[in-house]
Amino acid sequence: MIASRKTSLLKEIDFTREVVWLVEATLEAFDRGYRTTLSRREDPMSRQLVFALRRLQSKDGWEWLADYSISGQNDELDAEQESHLGRTDITFDLGGHHRFIWECKRLHFKGKTLYGEYRKEGVARFISRKYAKGHDHGGMLGFVMDGEIGKAIASVETHLAAHKAELEIDGRCFQPCIEPKDSRLRLSLHFPEGRFKLFHCFLAV
User: Going by C-beta distance under 8 Å and a sequence separation of 6 or more, which residues neighbour residue 47?
Assistant: First the structure.
């Protein structure tokens, strides 16, 4: 059976570079088109970001983003075990060959820091390969409910450092993000030789 030309082209894409662009697109969509929802729950807020990303697909300079299917509350399935692993908040899918996932969590909400949820129900799901199995990138997106991004970044870093072994963090807990460069971004590397790269994005809502 001869593979389609589209399939062949997709396999040649440098997805490491594409991931950087997807992170950049997420920030652009939030800054340019995110519409605040009355609900303070994670699902409606992440859904609003999906809508903002889809609107960005038609904007000048962002036409390449239309190659991606962008969905919210996407089922994460294990084909080998034929099991349902959970639902991811925001998923970019490129023709079934490449995917990038944002798992969204609230921080600093109603007097609670919620750092534990960020770790246990977010970061740990990537490390256990419950999410992004077969990929070497993923993303945690923190909705900072009180707007104090600097405090959230510093405190989440301290919390993750206390669980460095559990999360198999390689090197420093948080590293500056060079590509794309934005003060709201950090990186953590996991597994030996940093084989899995996790972007951390903090957005004030």
Answer: 37, 72, 73
Averaged pLDDT, 73-82: 59
Whole-angstrom Cα distance, residue 88 to residue 160? 21
For residue 151, the 8-state DSSP code is: H
Q: CA geometry: angle at 38 spanning 33 and 41, to 5°?
A: 95
pLDDT at residue 20 above 90? yes
* Number of domains, the chain: 1
pTM: 0.88
- CA-to-CA distance for 131 and 118, rounded, in angstroms? 14
The verdict on residue 55 lying in a domain is yes
Residues spanned by the domain of 87: 15-204
* Token code pair at residue 107: 């921080």
Cβ-contact 187, 175 below 8 angstroms: yes
CB 49 within 8 A of CB 90: yes
Place of tokens 């990303």: 53
CA distances from 203 to 58, 67, 182 (A): 23, 25, 11
Is residue 3 in a domain? no
R_g (Cα) of the chain, nearest Å: 17
Q: Which helix (H) or strand (E) holds 90?
A: strand 83-94
